[in-house]
Predict the structure of Decarboxylating 6-phosphogluconate dehydrogenase.
Amino acid sequence: MQIGLVGLGKMGGNMRERIRAAGHTVVGYDTNPDRSDVGHLSDLIDRLDVPRVVWVMVPAGAVTQHVIDQLGSLLKPGDLVVDGGNSRWTDDEKHARELGARGIGFVDAGVSGGVWGLEHGYALMVGGDEEHVERLKPIFDALKPEGPYGYVHAGEVGAGHFAKMVHNGIEYAMMQAYAEGWELLEKVHSVDNVREVFRSWQQGTVIRSWLLDLAVDALDEDPHLEKLRGYAEDSGEGRWTVEAAIDHAVPLPAITASLFARFASRQEDSPQMKMVAALRNQFGGHAVESADRDGLDQKRDQSQEQEDWA
């Protein structure tokens, strides 16, 4: 099968290699000429046989919209576009309408596997019409892991990215649980080898997982994670998961808390905790820390007697 691939970064570049290894023809385009097979997006279209299939692997939002707009003007009725990035499912519905008005098919594909996908394969969650999805099966089979699992036609347009969004929300909560357990183990004096405790969990326990394996790999490189700053970004999918939960009245306390924990990681001096500290001091005389730390010991001494009564 022949396919065009737009976006050859960490994921897209490896996907091109895996698809080619399965015997298919891939024409890749990227704004970085060192990665690209062609000079322009129009060149990619010209290189593909009709009816064309173009898979998009670019950042969600404005960049994806720009590429979809370009493809809408370059492709013809009967062609097919796949969005394999981390787009929001509501954007999929919009893109399907826009392309459908021109007779161009659209499929959304949630792709999970990261930098390991080239070797192990990618989990694929797909949304779209049965006809379009079936047309893409040779590519899905090339990308998915070996064996019967790792691919699902989740439903109509938007279902693939919705499923991937929920997957990432669960991932947030799992990472947060491992992180909290690690911090608690690091805090106590009785445990003197936290890395090996994590390693012992890799076999025979109910919390073993690939994320746990990666945590052990990280601790092998930096046993106390002293080289890292405690700061974590979010891709947007955690937020979308929480918003969808609100829309559907589904309680997601663990996923929501893990998202908020990432927000907290970006604050060197939490404004909220300033108010919490001030209130604790007002109602119970609990110690507070000065912003410049001057007089801190005196404040602690003055509040010590009152603290037991709060």
